[in-house]
Amino acid sequence: MTISYKPYVALLLYYFFAILPVWADPPASIVRLQFDKDRVEAAIVYQGSILSGARWTDVKGENTLIVSQLIPGDAKLGTHEDIVQELFAYQYVKTPAGNITLLWHFHDWAENACDRGDGLISPIDVTDLDSDGMAETRFMYNVQGGCDLSPRVHKLVMHSGETPYLIQGTDSIRMRNEERPEARSCKVYGEEKQFDAAFKKTPAIFRHEAANFWDHFIPKKNWCHD
Q1: 102 CB burial (10 A radius; 0-12, 13-18, 19+)
Q2: In the chain, what are the domain boundaries?
Q3: Which value, to the nearest 10 degrees, does the dihedral of the CA atoms of residues 172, 195, 179, 217 take?
C-alpha cells in the first residue's frame, strides 16, 4: 500500500502561508528622534512659545508633538486685571511621501488675576502601551493660577493616535486643619483625580499607566509643619 503525502503537504503549506502575515510582519516599533525647537519644519504651525516637544516614528509615519504656551507679552499680574494663559498641543504626521498633516490639536486656557499657572509640569512621554505599533503620548499641565493656597486644577492629556483621553484633578496641599484649628493638626486638601469616559473603552493598561504618570508628576505641597 502506497501512502501519498501530497495532500498533507499541501494542507500544511496552506495553513503556514495563511497565518504567516499575522506573525511575519509584527507592529513597527516606536523609534524616538531628536527634537530641536529651533529646527521645526515650516509646515508645522503652532501658536505661542514652545515649552517642549517630541519626535518619533511609528506605523503612521514620522510624528512631531509640540506643547506651547501663549501669555500676552506685556501682561502684568497683580494689576486687578485677569491675564489669559493659554496652552496648546499639536501632533503632526509626516508620511513617507513627505506630506505633513495635523493629526490632532488641543487647546486650554485660564484667566489668572494673581499667580500664573505652572504650564507644562511633566515631560512628554511617548510609548506603545498596547504593542500595536502606534504610539501613545501623554503630558501634564496647569494653567490655572491662584490667589491663595487652595488646590489648583491640573490635567493629563493622553492620545493613542488621534483618540484623546483626559484626567482632571487637583494637586495635594497639606496645611492646617481649618475644621479643628485648636488641635493644631494638619490635613491634606485636594488630591482629586477624575478619568473621562473615554478611558472606560481602553485597554486596562492605558488607565493604569495614566494613573501612575499622574501620581508621579502631580505636585504635592506641604504648608503645615507639625
Answers
A1: middle
A2: 27-222
A3: 0
| Cβ atoms 53, 38 nearer than 8 A | no
- Between the CA of residue 2 and those of 5, 32, 207, what are the distances in Å? 10, 60, 61
Cα–Cα dist 105/107, whole Å: 7
Q: Looking at the whole model, is its pTM more than 0.70? A: yes
Give the tens place of pLDDT for each residue, 39-85: 999 999 999 999 999 999 999 999 999 999 999 865 555 555 678 99
Q: Which three cell numbers stand for residue 117?
A: 499657572
* Residue type at 51 in one-letter notation: L
DSSP the chain: -----HHHHHHHHHHHHHHHHHHHSPPPPPEEE---GGG--TT----SEEEEEEEEEETTEEEEEEEEEE--TT--TTSSS-EEEEEEEEEEEE-TT--EEEEEEEEEEEEESSSPP-EE-SPPEEE-TT-SSS-EEEEEEE----SSSS--EEEEEEEETTEEEEEEEE-EEEEE-TT-GGGT-EEEEE--EEE-GGGGGS-HHHHHHHHHHHHHHS-EEE----
For residue 204, which amino acid is it? A
Cα separations in angstroms, 50 against 86, 178, 186: 12, 40, 39
Rounded to a whole number of angstroms, the distance between the first and last alpha carbons of the chain is 94
